[in-house]
Amino acid sequence: MEYRTPDKTKRPYGSRARIGLIVPSPNTVAETEFWRMAPDGVTIHTTRMLLAEKSKDPLKAMEAYLPRVLEELRGLEVDVVAYGCTASALKTPHEQTRDEIAGELERPTVTTMGSVLAAFEAFGVKSVAVGSPYTDDINHAERRYFERQGLTVTADEGVMLFEAQKRGRHMNLVPPDAVEGLAESIDSPEADAIFLSCSDMATLGSLDRLEDKLGKPVISSAQATFWGALRAAGIEDKIEGCGRLLREY
């Protein structure tokens, strides 16, 4: 029998790109929103790293699962990889994570934080208001991170609705009205853009409404990560209903 090199354009699904998505184990939002944003011919294939609540440093411990998830993605023959965790960049430089994954899988790789910074650059953002479902210590660490990138942070506030959020859980239960209220509360004339941080906080249905109301870009973790992955896969489609980032860039 003669075997042929697979032609991805002949795939029944994913004929344009298969995106491999890596998320922390509690995350249910990024995968859902990736599928909602995906144009025809693009498929999403998700793998998870265990985020253990009882660990002294859950984000750092989570990274020990990276070799396993990379083997899973290798078997899936994905075309591009998206590392979908914002706060992990506060522990390990996102460039290091990107380069490790890209080197292991020999595939273009994007990270959430790298994609967010690229989105800021696309819009010419110099000052940003940051809202999240995180605890104050993480919000303050994120402020310091962005300030080290040369950005001015005009606000860094969290919406805390559930006790489990203190343990990295239930971010995905924050409802749209709370997300939109958070964005409006942190906005000011000094902020060039709003950043809604955390790929496990649902934002997709709120982005256009907020941009229309506030008159400035509103960027979220999952949206920026998908945008970065799509462009890394060479797909330049402009997508409606997902905020200005995907519609304009």
Detailed description of the structure:
Helix content is 39%, strand content 17%. The protein is α/β, with parallel strands linked by helices. It has two domains: 8-112 and 224-248, 3-Layer(aba) Sandwich (Rossmann fold), CATH 3.40.50.12500; 115-220, 3-Layer(aba) Sandwich (Rossmann fold). A four-stranded parallel β-sheet has the order 2-1-3-4, sandwiched between helices. α4 (94-105) links the parallel β3 (80-83) and β4 (109-111). The longest helix is centred in the middle third of the chain and has 13 residues, at 136-148. It is globular, with a radius of gyration of 18 Å. The termini are far apart. The mean pLDDT is 94.
Quickly list its features.
249 residues; 2 domains; four-stranded parallel β-sheet; 17% strand; Rossmann fold; alpha/beta; globular
Structural class: alpha/beta
Major sheet description: 4 strands, parallel
Low-confidence stretches: none
Please report the number of helical segments: 10
Strand order of the largest sheet: 2-1-3-4
CATH architecture of the largest domain: 3-Layer(aba) Sandwich
Number of strands: 8
Order of helices and strands: EHEHHEHEHEHEHEHEHH
Please tell me how large the radius of gyration is: 18 Å
Count of individual domains = 2
Helical fraction equals 25-40%
Q: Name the beta content range.
A: 15-25%
> How does the overall form come out from the CA principal axes?
globular
Which CATH class of the largest domain applies here? Alpha Beta
The N- to C-terminal Cα distance equals: 46 Å
Question: Would you give the CATH topology of the largest domain?
Answer: Rossmann fold
